[in-house]
Design brief:
The protein is α+β, with helices and mostly antiparallel strands and 457 residues long. It is built from 11 helices and 12 strands. The strands form 3 sheets. A 5-stranded mixed β-sheet has the order 2-1-5-4-3. A 5-stranded mixed β-sheet has the order 7-9-10-12-11. It is rod-shaped and about 160 Å long. The protein folds into 3 domains: 157 residues, no CATH class; 39 residues; 160 residues, Heat Shock Protein 90, CATH 3.30.565.10. It catalyses: ATP + protein L-histidine = ADP + protein N-phospho-L-histidine. Its EC number is 2.7.13.3. One of its GO terms (molecular function) is kinase activity. It comes from Plastorhodobacter daqingensis. This is histidine kinase.
């Protein structure tokens, strides 16, 4: 329907020049016939009967004919004019706008008018030719011609609309229905990769839509599969953590008895062993809680940072393979901050462990340093190493679980856990630099009461 309407509008714009051209041709034909009739009179030395003169004028469709030849205006043929001359039209220099205007005026005027028409004689047979005629026959033929144009336009528009309708059905509607059917089928089973659409449309815009849909479906299917694997892994980890917690609780009971040993070395190691087992039990409980919800909110207390950092270094030093890694501690002895001791220990332990494993993977010597300080708004803890730096893939998914692993066999959980625990304190964990000379992270914990209260909730 829109195509029919638009083509008819276009035909209307074409109709006015066409009808103006038809009127001009009609009047020029009358001038030509009038000239031929006048030549018949001149050929007989102007000696013709009145009946023949009336017949010549009737065949020409005019009332009289005036020729101007050799600067002399001569009335060649004449007959009674039924009414005064209404208007004069000079076709010798009429422009397109004037022709369209005069044609519209003829169509709108239902009265039969007598008009004078001036034009150039054909074959240069004089300076001008002038005739008088009536408008009723002209208007009737113009209306008939216009109706033929409108009918032909209607037929063309209907045929064009039908062809366009078929083309749109084939090129647009069918591919769009295919996309909709794929979306419907995919919505019922988004985990099934077989339902991901394959772009086949020939129209570029529809094909772009299919490509975008394919990309979205691929990403969504991958995300759903990953979430499913994570859910299964979370269930398995929760079961393991549950049993491991029971085992570690028993080990803690035996470690408590070791504190009373007469062996000085055992007596010195027993407190650290008990502390490590206590942290392991707490981690298992946190893992069980994480399987149900997020990390538990931090229990904020005032704590001295240096002893906690020393515990982290001592634990990692025991895990170091050989003496190739040096641990440096640049934490003021009197620096205290508000944080959850267990969670902050896990944050530092994850960062230091990642640094140690990265250096050990190179087989070369290296250094790990923990530094700390404070300013007016926050405490900061810096963990730097001289390792090989993070690979490109790890930088892109730095704090994303199971995607940001920096070493072969790693799961990328350490940084993700550390970042989540720091956010729970209202702070942020940032990567300061990573290159061939090493990697440096910084932890910022706010001092403001509002941030600490939000973190504690």
């Amino acid at each position: 329907m829109l195509t029919v309407v638009f083509i008819m509008l276009a035909e209307i714009l074409i109709f006015l020049p066409s009808i103006a051209r038809y009127r001009e041709d009609y009047l020029l034909l009358r001038l030509e016939r009038a000239q031929i009739a006048s030549l018949a009179l001149l050929a007989t030395d102007e000696m013709i009967s009145e009946d023949l003169e009336r017949e010549l004028l009737a065949n020409a469709g005019v009332f009289n004919v005036v020729l101007r030849r050799d600067e002399v205006r001569q009335l060649v043929l004449s007959s009674p004019i039924p009414a005064p001359i209404h208007a004069t039209y000079d076709l010798r220099d009429a422009g397109p706008v004037e022709l369209v205007r005069d044609a519209v005026a003829v169509l709108l005027d239902r009265e039969n008018r007598v008009i004078r028409v001036i034009g150039n004689p054909v074959q240069a047979a004089g300076l001008l030719i002038e005739v008088t005629t009536e408008t009723a026959p002209l208007r009737a033929t113009m209306i008939e011609y216009g109706l033929r144009i409108l009918l032909l336009s209607a037929i063309i528009s209907v045929v064009t609309a039908f062809l366009l309708f078929v083309a749109v059905r084939i090129l647009l509607v069918a591919p769009i229905k295919r996309v909709v059917s794929h979306m419907t089928a995919y919505a019922e089973a988004p985990e099934d990769a077989r339902l991901i659409i394959e772009p086949t449309a020939g129209v570029r815009e529809v094909r772009d839509a299919e490509i975008a849909l394919q990309s979205m479906q691929t990403q969504l299917t991958g995300a759903l599969r990953q979430k499913e694997r994570l859910a299964q892994l979370g269930g398995a980890v929760a079961k393991v953590s549950h049993d491991l917690r029971n085992i570690l609780t028993t080990a803690t009971l035996f470690a408590d008895r070791m504190e009373h040993s007469n062996d000085p070395a055992v007596a010195r190691a027993a407190p650290k062993l008990v502390g490590s087992l206590a942290r392991a039990v707490n981690l298992c409980e946190s893992t069980l809680a994480f399987g149900k919800a997020e990390e538990p909110p931090p229990r904020l207390v005032r704590l001295a940072l240096r002893p906690l950092a020393e515990d982290v270094i001592d634990s990692e030093r025991l895990s170091t393979q050989g003496d190739g890694i040096a641990f440096l501690l640049d934490v003021p002895a009197g620096l205290t901050l508000r944080a959850d001791p267990e969670q902050l220990y896990r944050v530092l332990s994850n960062l230091v462990r990642n640094a140690r494993q990265a250096i050990e993977a190179t087989g070369e010597q290296g250094t790990i340093e923990i530094g700390a300080g404070e300013d007016e708004g926050a405490w900061w803890i810096r963990i730097g190493d001289t390792g090989p730096g993070l690979p490109e893939r790890a930088r892109e998914h730095l704090f994303t679980p199971f995607q940001g692993g920096a070493r072969k066999g790693g799961f990328g959980l350490g940084l993700a856990i550390a970042a989540e625990l720091v956010r729970g304190h209202g702070g942020r964990l940032e990567l300061v630099r990573t290159d061939e000379e090493g990697t440096e992270f910084i932890i910022r914990l706010p001092k403001t009461a509002a941030a600490l209260e939000v973190a504690a909730q």
